[in-house]
Amino acid sequence: MGFFTRRRKQPADTDALGVALIALRLDQGDVAPAGSTVVVFDAAGQARRAASGKVACGQGESVFCFHPGPYTVDLIPFAAAPEWGLRLRFVVDAANPRVSQQRFDLYLYSETSGRLQLAGFGASVEAALQAELAQGALDLPPCTSLDEWHAFRAGLNQLMYTRYGVTVDDCVPVDLGEQVDFADMLKVRAMRAAEVERLAADPPAPAIDAPAPVESHVLGEVASGPRPTPAAAPSPRSPPVAQADAQALRRLFLELPAVSRELRLLRLPEGLPVFERHQALLLRLGMASLNVTTMPALAWAAPDRPLAEEDQHRRSRHTLIARDALDEAWSLLARLQLAGREEWPQLLDETDRICANLETGLSLRRAPHADRVEPSL
Question: How many whole angstroms separate alpha carbon 371 and alpha carbon 315?
Fold first, then answer.
């Protein structure tokens, strides 16, 4: 009859690996295709690489496989000029025996839910590139000279290696005018502007808790009035807000120690002032990592006290601020690895700004309620 037969699990689809798919999570019994690399993460998040073949998972282990490439993506460095782009060709680095954890492995474990699509990875790289150009960390002026192009390429190569663990093989300017639909872009901008106006005109009403009944207690008598009801469980959060908060905290928990480790390995210029500021930076990042480790849950203000929905949204926004500061820290680390002696003071000022944003975001994420601001004349 077949009542007691075990259904066979469908094998993982690895046909797109190396073309439109960079990495894929595998389960017990799946087969990693030839030419790919298997990365095994244990329960503590430590990674080891293995050869392709049939996957054998231990208890608490998760397995990814990735194809080293090469891959090609088209990037738009300036959002205001979508017709001009860069064609980037990159490969995933081989294992570096001098480090305990490969940067690409950390990226897989921290930022990938199960499938790393080439299109999604390209969008992340494009956002990082636009942020670096907007802040002046990278310079790509009109009519770029050869020396300016080499300086830009050096910064871009280091950013890709430090932030994602991939090596840029080639980067050339390209005309994307035929691929860009300007009418669709204008429609998307109009829809976003309308959504912002709608949210500004109709903000979510804050949840107001009903006052608890007052009980009168008289010595020798039973308390009168209704008995207090236990606190209700927190209302279920909408998946995007709760999921974004959890993913951002997970990234902070996993990546802040890695950033601190890389900063500790930097070769500092001679001089006591730089050394003192570097030590202060490491201390602040260590305290921020401890703050993330002890972060309270999103939906609770205190034990047995659920948090209002408006405050949960506020907490989640501050988590994303801290996550953005983490992205800036990775980008700044790439600049510090290439910096000369005269550039260190300015870059250390940037670290102060990034640490301040990180500490502020984590502090406000921990606070259950927003501080009351008294009106002033």
Answer: 13
- In sequence order, the 6+-apart residues with CB closer than 8 A to the CB of 344 are 268, 269, 274, 336
Residue type, 124: S
pLDDT tens sequence across 38-70: 888 887 778 788 777 777 777 777 888 888 879
Q: List pLDDT tens digits, range 281-321.
A: 999 999 998 988 888 888 777 787 887 778 778 888 888 99
Place of tokens 């389960």: 27
Residue boundaries of the structural domains of the chain:
21-66, 71-177, 242-370
Q: Sheet containing 84-92: give its strands across.
A: 71-75, 84-92, 166-175
H helix or E strand, kind and range, residue 371: none
One-letter amino acid for residue 106 of the chain: L
Q: First vs last Cα of the chain: how many Å apart? A: 82
How far apart are the C-alpha atoms of 31 and 38, rounded to whole Å? 10
Question: Measuring CA to CA, which residue among 137, 122, 116 is closest to residue 75?
Answer: 122
Strand partners, 49: 39
What is the phi/psi pair of residue 117, to 5°?
-80, 145
Type of residue at 327: D
Residue with tokens 């990938």: 112
